[in-house]
Amino acid sequence: MVLRMGQLLIINAPSSFAFIWAMIKPWLSKETVEKVDILSSNYREVLLEVIDAENLPVTLGGNCTCEGEGGCDLSGAGPWMDERKASRKTESTEDSRSVERTKEIVQPK
């Protein structure tokens, strides 16, 4: 099985979540469990160890505001977007080639 998750930080989860997590953990692989951290209200230091302040939203103790993108909550900014943007670019190039081939078929030279 391929694991794609690098790390999951859960912030300010209710105490009931910790109980549920304790019940779920035994069914997950050791590698997955090690990537999950449940953080209490003093999460800022841990987040800044993992995420640079300029990439961490102000609401979570960082410096990022995602100006011009509607704010961090709405921007979708992050490394996960790189793959999506590359995929869209490839799809766009393939669509352009398909249109050109269709034109050649419909309008022979």
Task: Explain what the structure shows.
- By secondary structure, this protein is mainly alpha-helical.
- The chain has a domain at 79-109.
- Helices cover 49% and strands 7% of the residues.
- Strands 1-2 form a two-stranded parallel sheet.
* Rg on CA atoms, Å: 22 Å
Secondary-structure element series: EHHEHHH
Structural class: mainly alpha
Main sheet: strand order: 1-2
Largest sheet: 2 strands, parallel
Helix content, binned percent: 40-55%
Coarse morphology: elongated
Q: Which residues form runs of ≥5 with pLDDT under 50?
A: none
Residue-averaged pLDDT: 79
Instruction: Give the DSSP E fraction (strand runs of 2 or more residues).
Output: 5-15%
Secondary structure layout plus pairing:
Blueprint: E1 8-11, H1 15-24, H2 30-34, E2 36-39, H3 44-50, H4 72-75, H5 80-106
Task: Spell out the key features of this protein.
109 residues, two-stranded parallel ribbon, 5 helices
Short account of what is shown:
This protein is mainly alpha-helical and 109 residues long. The chain has helices spanning 15-24, 30-34, 44-50, 72-75, 80-106; strands at 8-11, 36-39.
